[in-house]
Design the sequence.
C-alpha cells in the first residue's frame, strides 16, 4: 500500500481560475497558481507505510525511542515510548501518542535524552516540521512548515522544489561528533539545532 497526496480539488481550482481574468482579481489568480504549484510538488512524493515498529537509539545507546502503531496502521495514530537503557535493561521514561500522521518521517535521539522529530511520514505541509522533546517528555520547541520557512529565509515554494526527503529536507538530519548539534539541509542552506539550548540557526 502506498501513501500519496491526492489533489481532489485541483480541477475545481483550475476552473475557478478562469473566472479571475480581470486585472482587479489578478492577485487572487496568482495566489491560486502558487498554491496549485505547491500542492502539485508535494503530490509527487509517495512512500510505503512505515514499519509497525521502529527504534531510534542515541549514539551511546543509553536512550532509545520506540515508535509503533496501535492497530497495524488501520489508523494514522502512532505511539512513542522513550526508554533509558541501563545494563541492557530498559526503563520507561515516558510514552505519548504522537501528533504526526503515521509518526515522524525521521527521528534522532541525543545522549542526554533529547528527542528530535522531523516532518510526518505522510508528505504534507506539516504543523510538526520539526519538534523537540526532552527526557522528561516536555516540549522544548515545535515549528510548523510555514514558521520553519521564515526561519530558513527561503521562499516556501523553493524549499519544496529543492526537497529530496519529504516537503523540505535536502540532506538528512545528523548529530555531529560533539553530540550537541544537529544539522539538516534545506532550501540550499543548513539548519543547525543546538540540543542543549533548543535554539535554531541557519547558514
Sequence:
Amino acid at each position: 500500500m502506498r501513501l500519496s497526496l491526492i489533489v481532489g480539488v485541483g480541477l475545481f481550482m483550475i476552473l475557478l481560475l478562469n473566472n479571475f481574468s480581470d486585472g482587479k482579481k489578478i492577485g487572487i489568480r496568482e495566489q491560486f497558481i502558487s498554491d496549485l504549484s505547491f500542492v502539485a510538488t508535494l503530490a509527487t512524493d509517495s512512500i510505503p507505510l512505515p514499519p509497525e515498529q521502529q527504534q531510534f537509539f542515541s549514539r551511546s545507546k543509553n536512550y532509545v525511542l520506540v515508535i509503533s502503531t496501535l492497530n497495524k496502521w488501520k489508523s494514522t495514530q502512532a505511539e512513542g515510548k522513550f526508554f533509558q537503557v541501563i545494563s541492557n535493561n530498559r526503563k520507561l521514561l515516558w510514552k505519548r501518542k504522537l501528533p504526526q500522521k503515521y509518526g515522524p518521517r525521521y527521528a534522532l535521539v541525543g545522549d542526554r535524552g533529547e528527542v528530535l522529530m522531523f516532518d510526518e511520514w505522510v508528505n504534507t505541509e506539516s504543523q510538526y516540521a520539526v519538534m523537540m522533546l526532552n527526557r522528561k517528555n516536555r516540549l522544548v520547541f515545535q515549528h510548523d512548515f510555514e514558521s520553519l520557512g521564515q526561519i530558513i529565509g527561503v521562499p516556501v515554494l523553493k524549499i519544496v522544489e529543492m526537497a529530496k526527503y519529504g516537503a523540505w529536507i535536502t540532506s538528512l538530519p545528523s548529530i555531529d561528533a560533539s553530540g550537541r548539534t544537529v544539522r539538516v539541509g534545506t532550501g540550499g542552506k543548513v539548519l543547525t539545532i543546538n540540543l542543549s539550548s533548543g535554539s535554531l540557526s541557519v547558514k
